[in-house]
Please model this.
Amino acid sequence: MVQIVPSILAADFARLAREIETVERGGASMLHIDVMDGHFVPNLTVGPPVVSSIRKATRLTLDVHLMITDPDKYAPAFIEAGANQVSVHQEACPNLDRTLRMIRDEGARPGVVLNPATPVTLLEDVLALVDYVLIMSVNPGFGGQRFIPRALDKIRRLDGLRSDLGLDFAIEIDGGITTENLAGVVRAGCDWIVAGSSIFHTPDPAAAVAEMRQIAQGAAAVRV
Model:
């Protein structure tokens, strides 16, 4: 089932608990939390204390995306804080197999992330270890960027690998998703759609989630 995953990077942190309640009303069952260290990407966001506070405010699945240079050091702290699943960048993990196994051993579902310039083929030897793969459709570091269209080809290639290998990992996308390009992303094979500005920067985030869910469900019946 295709899921719309609101990204709190675009939310109003002064009223974050209320923002989360709003997207819950719209039908969201997951929240995307971007963790940036100012080194792997040129921005700083949140640490484990914020994740711990969010965990107290909601029962939604917390999807923590580590855009940091040392995920092996910090992933356990985010899992202890309440992350249900943790994704790490292929580009940041010299021992990716070990990192993914560590995340699962710590009690979370492991995922791996690819930047726009990183080919899908680099993941072939670890796909059996992950619960999901996140394709970045913008260069990571900031919200509100425009969608990079070649991400659709990467989704199709990844979906083909999933079928050929007989695996069932989810395919997630993050970056520049709007109501205009959402259907194409779903038809290409994507399962989890991260959206920030398209939800939280609207007059009614609950209605935005509901609308995106409706579009996604319609498109899921016509995969290409």
